[in-house]
Amino acid sequence: MLVVALREIASRALKRDFEGCKQRLGRTQPAQQKDHIWIHAASNGEVTSAKPVISQLGHDGRAILVTVNTDSAVALVQGWALPNVSVQLAPIDLPGPTARLIKSWGVKALIVLESDLWPHRILTCPGPVLVLGARLTERSAKGWKRFNALARKVVGKISYLSAQDAGSLKRISQFGLAEAATGPVYDLKALYAPPKASPDATLLQAFDLQKTWLAASTHEGEDQIILSAHTKAQQTWPDLKLILAPRHPKRAEAIAKLAKSLGLAVSRRSQNDDPRANQVYLADTLGEMAFWYQLAGITFVAGSLTDRGGHTPYEPAYFASAILHGPDTANFQAAYARLKDKNASIRVTDTDTLAEALISLNDPLRQQALGIAAQSALRQDTDIDALMTDIRGVLDA
After folding, report:
1. Strand runs (DSSP E) across the chain, as ranges?
2. CB–CB of 93/69 below 8 Å?
3. Count of C-beta atoms within a 10 Å radius of residue 103
4. What are the structural domain ranges in the chain?
5. 395 φ, ψ to 5°?
6. If we measure between CA atoms, which residue out of 303, 295, 357 comes closest to residue 321?
7. What is the band of 195 on the pLDDT scale with cuts at 50, 70, 90?
8. With contact defined as beta carbons under 8 Å apart, do 182 and 169 qualify?
9. What is the model's pLDDT at position 3?
10. How far apart are the first and last CA of the chain?
11. CATH number at 201-377
C-alpha cells in the first residue's frame, strides 16, 4: 500500500510539474478559440488588487487570460471562479514562449500590474498595452537607466498607464511616457476587500484581539528581531500572543527552531496544532492572511526591516489593526507617507524599538485609536467606475 501511495504522489507531482512547464513555455490552448485580454500580475498581492478590474471585464463578456508567477496565485484566482476568466503561470519572457501564448490565446491587448514590465510581452503585443498601479522605485529607476534605449522602447509602447503614486509616475515619465497615455494616479490596493471566509470559532476563541499582534509576511532576517521583541515585550505584557505569518511557509521549520532557541514554544497552523496551546502561533499556510488581520489588534508589516521595500499596509488598515513597520517602505511610499502625516503608524528599527512599540500599545484605547487612524488615513476616494471607463475606452479604441 505504501509503494502504491508513493507512486500516486510521484505521478501527481510529475503531472503538475509537466503542466507548469507547458505554461512557462507558452504551450497551452484556451478552452474556446476567441480573442483574449491578457492580464499579468506577479503574485497574490498584485492580482488581488486587480480583482475588481478582472471581474468587471469578465462580466462584460470579454475573455480574460490571467497569468501569474506563483502556484499560490494561480490557486487564488481559480478560487474566485470569475466568469470568462482563465488563469495559468506566466510564460518565460523570451520570444518563443511569448509568441506562442499570444498566438494560441488570440491576445489582443495586455494589462500589466505594478512593476512586472517584461519587454517581450509588451513589445510583441499586437494591441494596446495598459499598466495599472504602476510602480517604479528610485532604485529601480537607476537600473532602468543602464538600459535606457530598451526602457524607452518599452515605455513608448504603453497606451495607458495609471501609476500608484506621483513619484512612480514622474520616474516612469522620464523614459518617454506619452502624455496621451498618462492616466490618473490610482492605487488599486486601496480597493482591498477581504475574502468572504472568516476565522473559525477555534481561532476566534484562541486570540484576544487586543492582546494579539501579527507579524505579516516576514522574510529571512526579520524573524529573529520579531521573536526577540516578543520575548522582551512579554516581560511587561505576559499574556501578549504573537501570530507569525512567514511570506514563504517553507521557512516554517527554521522559524520554529529559532523560536525554540529563544525559549518560545510554538503551535503551527499547518500541523493543526491547538492555537491556544502556546504564545506563538506560526501561520505557515497560504491564502489565510485575512484571518490573521482579523484576529490581531496590532500588525507589524514585514518586509520593511530588510531591503524588500515593505508589504501593503492597506490590508491591516482595512481591519483597523494598529500598524507597526520598519524603515524600508519603498514599495508603498505614498501610503506610508499618509500614515506618517496622520501619526497613524509606528516606525521601528530593531528589537528594542519593536518591543517598546508593542508595550506602548498595551492600552486598548490607544491601540484602537491607532488602528482607526490608519484606516482613515488610507481610505481613498477611489472611483473604480472612472478607471473602468478609461480601461474600456483604450481596449475598444
Report:
1. 36-40, 64-68, 85-89, 107-113, 129-134, 160-163, 212-218, 241-246, 266-268, 280-282, 298-301, 322-325, 345-347
2. no
3. 11
4. 24-187+382-396, 201-377
5. -65, -35
6. 295
7. confident
8. yes
9. 40
10. 61
11. 3.40.50.2000
What pLDDT, on the 0 to 100 scale, is given for residue 12?
47
Domain at 24-187+382-396, CATH from 2.40.50.140, 3.40.50.11720, 3.20.140.10, 3.30.70.240: 3.40.50.11720
Burial 171-204 (b: 16+ CB within 10 A, else e): bbbebebeeebbbebbbbbbbbeeeeeebeeebe
Helix (H, G, I), strand (E, B) or coil at 161: strand
Interval 316-344: pLDDT, tens:
999 999 999 999 998 888 899 999 999 99
What string of DSSP letters covers 67-132?
EESSHHHHHHHHHH--TTEEEEEPPPSSHHHHHHHHHHTTEEEEEEETT---HHHHHH-SS-EEEE
All cell numbers assigned to 140: 529601480
**Each residue of 344-370: pLDDT tens digit?**
999 999 999 999 999 999 999 999 999
